[in-house]
Design a protein that fits this description.
Layout: E1 10-14, H1 19-30, E2 34-39, H2 42-52, E3 55-58, H3 64-72, E4 78-83, H4 98-126, E5 129-134, H5 147-166, E6 172-179, E7 181-182, E8 198-199, H6 201-214, E9 218-221, H7 227-234, H8 237-254, H9 258-272
Parallel strand pairs: 1-2, 1-4, 2-3, 4-5, 5-6, 6-9, 7-8
Helix pairs in contact: 1-6, 3-4, 4-5, 4-9
Amino acid sequence: MNALALSGVAVAITGGARGIGRATAKAFIAEGARVYIGDLDADLAETTADELGCQGVGLDVRSRASFTEFLAGVDGPLQVLVNNAGIMPAGRFVDELDAVTDSIVDVNLNGVLRGTKLALPGMLENGSGHIVNVASYLGRVPAAGLATYCATKHAVVGFSESLRDELDGTGVTVTVVLPSAVRTDLVSGVKLGGVLPTVDPKEIADAVVSSCRSRPAIVAVPGWMRSYETAAALVPDRLLGAVRGRLTRQRVLQALDTDARAAYDARIRRDAGASDS
């Protein structure tokens, strides 16, 4: 598959006002692309766009009408769609409010399906395009305290690989990016470092941009994380469980700094329309 020349092409990024989305927009702009960012926080999207020199609008990926309006605002054919919007509430699944569960699924999974379905017809008509779905390495491994989040990311990985095969020969490709822990609001209150690989948003942004050139099926960041899958198939369950405990269970269920995470969790509940009752 030929590399996409990014200079002058239209790139749409969801969840583009902060974190990975912002870094990805900046990276594409550096390549000369025409970037359009959408974010649930419309004011922040506009502010970020002004700072970076691109277009920014409000976007609710849970709404087909909102997503349709966002893509309609792209000037010229859309060549790259980056489905980046995502949320990650943490805690015991049994305590998770139904509205929050629904919101995780609707943002992390349905938002990807919805945006891809809307962008595909134009790409197929032009015989060219690239879709990048920002998932997580937790789309390959389980994580206690993040059950619903992991479920959605596993689904995005499966969707991306399946759709890639379905689009074979059309000129349209799909890459799923699997970051380890990224230093953004999503991991606020989680103790990073140690055996938990941690990266910066720029590293994910660079991987997204690079995928437009090589168009691989899967990109892990850092790349060596993919060795986990081979090792997991060979290691006894008890040992594997101990490793997972150090990676996530202790950090999310036992040592989570709820004060540091309070603002993020409150925003997620508000956006989900959830109450604590």
